[in-house]
Automatic annotation (TrEMBL), chain A:
Signal peptide range: none
Protein name per UniProt: Sorting nexin-4
Species lineage: Eukaryota, Metazoa, Chordata, Craniata, Vertebrata
Ranges for region Disordered: 1-50
PANTHER family: SORTING NEXIN-4
Organism annotation: Trichechus manatus latirostris
Compartments it resides in: Early endosome membrane
Domain PX, first and last residues per copy: 61-187
Pfam families: PX (PF00787)
UniProtKB/TrEMBL annotation, chain B:
GO biological process, one term: piecemeal microautophagy of the nucleus
PROSITE patterns membership: PX (PS50195)
Boundaries of every PX domain copy: 89-210
Protein name: Sorting nexin-30
Length: 450, 437
């Protein structure tokens, strides 16, 4: 099977030659700011490159898959599949492509790349990887990861992933992505050195935020709801489709039995013999035609699966928003309470319960100097808090703006892709019907000669 | 599975037995045409139908005439029939208009039998009577009795094997009607059977039950004699042609049985496929409700799958109603043919045994005793009749299967054409560029 995309390999803008800002492990800036920094510098870079470098186009392909043996982290023998990632640059003038890079990657490295992208670009709907294990299989399809058909479909899925990343206006500029394509050795170490795992939001934190956030942007709430529903409906669709494929397989294959019995019957007939025999042959053809038909349909299932997994990517963006919003709300709440504390200290009124207030009552008032000191500390904290709140607010708004822009881009892509998928599915069905008509017409002709 | 409960036939409703006209009396039939005169007992007595004789309006066949000349005349007649192919046909029989009758004791279906004929054996040019399955069964038994040297066509199964089928559903009744129609038409086409007296009565009598009770009308000469053939004689050697027929029928029945099983299996798989399709289509609808631009395309796909499901259901219904019953009929046919072959063997065996006994006797009689001659006569009649019927059967079988299998192919083609139309019609919908919402 050739590359699944109906478009030819996507064309890239030139990968920037200088590393993009913000990827040094030494910087300790918060994730949100880093992403922001990327965006700003990236766009500047882009402007620079457009002005200073001649446009080169890049083609990416995952062209081969190979079984390998090696030793894993705990020094045990294991078999895995490695995929050949080839990058070609296309000379603009004559359209010739020259192989610039070629290296082998295994699935876990793709996963690593994606995890990295998720952390550093939380406002982007990051393209999903093909499934790790075969799911939604109908009985003839193997659930074995080593099965050649599965490996082949995975190869296409991985290529698709890389093409999606390469054609994303933001992601394509990422250095780690560039290194993934170009630097075979030590790439893993390089990624890990970015310390991205540490910067990742904890799942627990995110879950907490989801439940407790008070005022998330309504659009994100709706989007989250949509992605839940989308995931549910596509799962259902894939499950039923697998059962449909199973049943259809059964129908076709049983017809093969006609071939045999017609042949046996024709042996005892005089005039009817030839007609029966040749009709039987057509029944055999009919029975065996289902294999190719269903193999083609797997491609459709893969297209649906991609968007099933995309739903998860959408949810990740929503989660990030909720987390940031919750963070903001907590910061604002914290600031408000500190301000109140300060006010109470200054005016001497105790409106709210506090441990200090309690101990004061029990053990006596503090001295004016102590009081002054505390007020001073609080005032500093309040100042800091106000700064932080301001920047968090800005961050939050930037995030919402950028995320929503990417979501709109994603929506357009999704509508285009799924329409194409539906069209190609309809075309497959039409082809299947035509084949059916052909076979039965042939059989009918044989019967007419009986 | 078929949507909705099977349709029930209009019923005459419960009536007191006295009030209701006897349905078999013929007055409940819509047409006033004919059917009023029952052949008088006198007429019945004087007619006798020899299976080889040309039909004489009065008087029977002189006893004792032997075979060869008559059998060749029979063959001539057969050939004539084949050439004519319905153009100078003089007998037409149709089964239609099933009606349900509800009585206190039982509920049953009757069918209208319409007969049109120019034959002298029929007093009127047209008859219309009502008969129930029981009557057909009676007719068949009578034919077997009175024409034991001929192959009698099969009836559809008496009892419904799958207990789930409703005896009064429109589908079941229609299937049965077609089979009963086929049964009568096969008899009509038969040069000997169609002149059978019981057949005539069946087609014309207002009160068939009275005739049934009358006891035996005359059996044919051969029928009478074959009836008395005892079993228990051992056959020396079967003539090649009959051995071949026997072997053929064995294999034929086997293959048909296999085809029946395959066809049933296919229908089962198709029904299971249909069940999944019926769940599959609506999921696209559910999805469509979530989407904006994709809503119409997805809904279109859902509707398309729905259309394919309907087409598939029609296919499975057709195969169940039209294909399977005909297969089963032929299996029954070959079973009954086998028993006719056995009888033939017995007749031959009896003859051979008796002949041998005579040869062993030390008497000097140059002449073969009369009873041995009778046996020989019987045997040769039987052989000739059977041979002729086999040829006819082979020909009809070829045509029937040709039609049956072409019909099966046709139904599948129609199914795929319906699906093709559905899918082709949504392509423009899918490709449509939608205005920005």
């Amino acid at each position: 099977m050739e590359g699944a995309r109906s478009e030819p390999e996507r064309q890239l803008q030139p990968a920037p030659l200088e590393p993009l800002g913000g990827l040094d492990a030494e910087q300790d800036a918060a994730v949100g700011e880093e992403a922001e920094g990327d965006l700003e510098e990236g766009s500047e870079d882009r402007k620079m490159t457009e002005n200073n470098f001649s446009l080169k186009k890049i083609e990416i392909s995952v062209s081969e898959a190979e079984k390998r043996s090696g030793r894993n982290a705990v020094n045990m023998q294991e078999t895995y599949t490695a995929y050949l990632v080839e990058t070609r640059s296309v000379e603009h003038i004559d359209g010739q492509s020259v192989l610039t890079d070629s290296l082998w990657r295994r699935y876990s490295e793709f996963e690593l790349l994606r995890s990295y992208l998720l952390v550093y670009y939380p406002h982007v709907v990051v393209p999903p990887l093909p499934e790790k294990r075969a799911e939604f299989v109908w009985h003839k399809l193997s659930a074995d990861n080593m099965d050649p058909d599965f490996v082949e479909r995975r190869r296409i899925g991985l290529e698709n992933f890389l093409l999606r990343v390469a054609s994303h206006p933001i992601l394509c500029r990422d250095k780690i992505f560039y290194l993934f394509l170009t630097q075979e050795s030590n790439w893993k170490e390089t990624v890990n050195e970015t310390g991205f795992q540490l910067k990742a939001d904890s799942r627990l934190k995110a879950l907490n935020a989801t439940f407790r956030v008070k005022n998330p942007d309504k659009r994100f709430t709706e989007l989250k709801h949509y992605s839940d529903e989308l995931q549910s409906v596509i799962s259902h669709l894939l499950r039923v489709r697998a059962r449909v494929a199973d049943r259809l397989y059964g129908v076709y294959k049983v017809h093969g039995n006609y071939g045999r019995v017609f042949s046996e019957w024709s042996a005892i007939e005089k005039e009817m013999g030839d007609g029966l025999q040749s009709a039987g042959h057509h029944m055999d053809v009919y029975a065996s035609s289902i294999d190719d038909i269903l193999e083609d349909e797997e491609h459709y299932a893969d297209q649906l699966k991609e968007y099933l997994f995309y739903a998860e990517a959408l949810r990740a963006v929503c989660r990030k928003h909720e987390l940031m919003q919750y963070d903001l709300e907590m910061a604002a709440q914290d600031l408000a309470s500190k301000k109140q504390q300060c006010e109470e200290l200054a005016t001497g009124t105790v409106r709210t319960f506090s441990l200090k207030g309690m101990t004061t009552k029990l053990f006596g008032q503090e001295t004016p100097e102590q009081k002054e000191a505390r007020i001073k500390v609080l005032e500093e904290q309040i100042n800091e808090g106000e700064q932080q709140l301001k920047s968090k607010n800005l961050e939050g708004r930037e995030f919402v703006k950028n995320a929503w822009a990417d979501i709109e881009r994603f929506k357009e892509q999704k509508n285009r892709d799924l329409k194409e998928a539906l069209i190609s599915y309809a075309v497959m069905q039409i082809s299947m019907c035509k084949k059916g008509i052909q076979v039965w017409t042939n059989a009918k002709e044989c019967f007419s000669k009986m | 599975m078929s949507g909705g409960p099977p349709k029930a036939l209009p019923s005459t409703g419960p009536h007191s037995l006295r009030d209701m006209p006897h349905p078999l009396a013929g007055s409940s039939s819509e047409e006033a045409v004919g059917g009023d005169s029952t052949p008088s007992p006198d007429l019945l007595m004087t007619r006798s139908f020899g299976d080889k004789d040309l039909i004489l309006p009065n008087g029977g066949t002189p006893a004792g005439t032997s075979s060869p000349a008559s059998s060749s005349s029979l063959l001539n007649r057969l050939q004539l029939d084949d050439d004519i192919d319905g153009e100078t046909r003089d007998l037409f029989v149709t089964v239609d208009d099933p009606k349900k009758h509800v009585c206190t004791m039982e509920t049953y279906i009757t069918y209208r039998i319409t007969t049109k004929s120019t034959r002298v054996e029929f007093d009127l040019p047209e008859y219309s009577v009502r008969r129930r399955y029981q009557d057909f069964d009676w007719l068949r038994n009578k034919l077997e009795e009175s024409q034991p040297t001929h192959l009698i066509p099969p009836l559809p199964e008496k009892f419904v094997v799958k207990g789930v089928v409703d005896r009064f559903s429109e589908e079941f009744v229609e299937t049965r009607r077609k089979a009963l129609d086929k049964f009568l038409k096969r008899i009509t086409d038969h040069p000997v059977l169609s002149f059978n007296e019981h057949f005539n009565v069946f087609l014309t009598a207002k009160d068939l039950n009275a005739y049934k009770k009358q006891g035996m009308a005359l059996l044919t000469r051969v029928g009478e004699s074959v009836k008395h053939v005892t079993g228990g004689y051992k056959l020396r050697s079967r003539p090649l042609e009959f051995a071949a027929i026997g072997e053929y029928l064995d294999t034929f029945a086997l293959k048909l049985g296999t085809i029946d099983r395959i066809a049933q299996r296919i229908i089962k798989e198709e029904i299971e496929y249909l069940v999944e399709l019926r769940e599959y289509g609506p999921v696209y609808s559910t999805w469509s409700a979530l989407e904006g631009e994709l809503a119409e395309p997805l809904e279109g796909v859902s509707a398309c799958i729905g259309n394919c499901s309907t087409a598939l259901e029609e296919l499975t219904d057709d195969m169940t109603e039209d294909f399977l019953p005909v297969l089963r009929e032929y299996i029954l046919y070959s079973d009954s043919m086998k028993s006719v072959l056995k009888k033939r063997d017995q007749v031959q065996a009896e003859y051979e045994t008796k002949l041998e006994a005579v040869a062993l006797r030390k008497e000097d009689r140059p002449k073969v005793p009369a009873d041995v001659e009778k046996c020989q006569d019987r045997m040769e009649c039987f052989n000739a009749d059977l041979k002729a019927d086999m040829e006819r059967w082979q020909n009809n079988k070829r045509q029937d299967f040709r039609q049956l299998l072409m019909g099966m192919a046709d139904k599948n083609i129609q199914y795929y054409e319906k699906c093709l139309t559905a899918w082709e019609s949504i392509i423009p919908l899918l490709q449509e560029k939608q205005e920005a919402k």
